[in-house]
Amino acid sequence: MTIGTVLSPSAIDASGNAVDTAVALGAAAAAAGVSSVWLGQRLSYDAIALAGIVGRAVPGLTVGTSAVPITARHPLLIAGQAQTTQAATGGRFTLGLGLGARFLAEPVFGGSFDRPITRLREFLTALRTVLHTGTVDFHGETLTAAAPLPAAVAGARPPAPILVAAMGPQALRVTGELADGTLPYLVGPKALEEHIVAPITAAAERAGRPAPRITVLVPGVVTADVDAARAAAAAQTAFYDDIPSYARVIELSGASRAAELVVIGDEELIAARVAEYFAAGATEVVFAQTDLTTPEDQRRTWEVLGELQRSRVG
C-alpha cells in the first residue's frame, strides 16, 4: 500500500518552464517521502512525456498519468508514448487512462462520444496487445489498430500497468477484465468499497485476472486556514458537480457536491482519512489539489504523506 500525490497543473502551466517546474515538484515530493507522483493530461503539456522526464530525473520515484483521455487518441500512438516513458524511467511508469467526456470529444476534438464503453473495450484490447507483444492486428467497431512494422520499444519492460479512471458499472466491468486497475476520484471510502472495489474485483475474478490496483485520488491539504482552503476547494471542484459520472459517485459518497469530499484540516485528520481509504480497499492513496492554500501547506501535506508512507513500509 503506497501513498502518492498529483503534481499541481496550475504551477506547471504558470511557470517559466513547465518541464523544469514539474521536475522540481517531483523532486520535492520525493524528498518528503512520497512514493509516486501523478500528472493529469491538459490541453497544454503532454502528461506521458512529462511523466517520463520527471521519472528519469528523480531516481526511485514512481510516475503516472491521471488520466489521459482516450478521446482523439489511438492505441498505437499511446502505446509508443507509454513504452518510451517506461523505458526512460526503468519500469517506474503507470499509464492512467480515462474515457474522456462528450463536452471535449465533440466540440473540441470534432470526434464522436457515441458508444464510449465499446470504444474503451476496443482501445484496451488493442493497447494491451501492443504493450505485451510489440505488435497488433485489431479490427473493431470503433477503431482499427494494425501495425505494419514492429511496435515494441527496447527497454520498456515490464509492460506499463494500465489503470482506467472508471467509476460507472459498465466501465468498471471492462476495466476489471482488461486493465490492471482503476483511478477513482471524488469518491468517499464507503462508496469506494461498495461501488468501486467490489464490482471491479468481481469482474477481474470472472476474467481470471489478478486482483486490480485501486489507486484512489483524494483532494486534500494540511492547513490551519480551513476557511480559505474550503473556498478554494469549492471553486476548483464545482466543475465536477455537473459531470454525470462524478455526480453519481459524489451522491453515493453521501455528499451533495464535490467540495464536501475534499479533506481539509490537521495532520491527524489526513492520517485518519488515508487509513479509511486503505481499509475500504485502496491499494494506493494519491492526494490531489495539495496546492489549495500556500506552498508551505503543500510541503507540509507532502511531509505528512511521506511520514505515513514510511510508517507503512516500516
Molecular structure report:
This protein is of the alpha/beta class. It has twelve helices and twelve strands. The chain has an eight-stranded parallel β-barrel with strand order 1-2-3-5-8-9-10-12, surrounded by seven helices. The longest helix is centred in the C-terminal third of the chain and has 19 residues, at 295-313. The chain is globular and about 60 Å long. The mean pLDDT is 96.
Secondary structure: elements and pairs:
Layout: E1 2-6, H1 9-13, H2 18-31, E2 36-39, H3 47-57, E3 62-65, E4 68-69, H4 75-88, E5 93-98, H5 102-105, H6 116-133, E6 137-139, E7 144-146, E8 162-164, H7 169-178, E9 181-182, H8 189-206, E10 213-222, H9 226-237, H10 244-252, E11 263-265, H11 267-279, E12 284-288, H12 295-313
Parallel strand pairs: 1-2, 1-12, 2-3, 3-5, 4-5, 5-8, 8-9, 9-10, 10-11, 10-12
Antiparallel strand pairs: 6-7
Helix pairs in contact: 2-3, 3-4, 4-6, 6-7, 7-8, 8-11
EC number: 1.-.-.-
GO molecular function, one term: oxidoreductase activity
InterPro entries: F420-G6PD/mer (IPR050564), Lucif-like_OxRdtase_MSMEG_4879 (IPR019910), Luciferase-like_dom (IPR011251), Luciferase-like_sf (IPR036661)
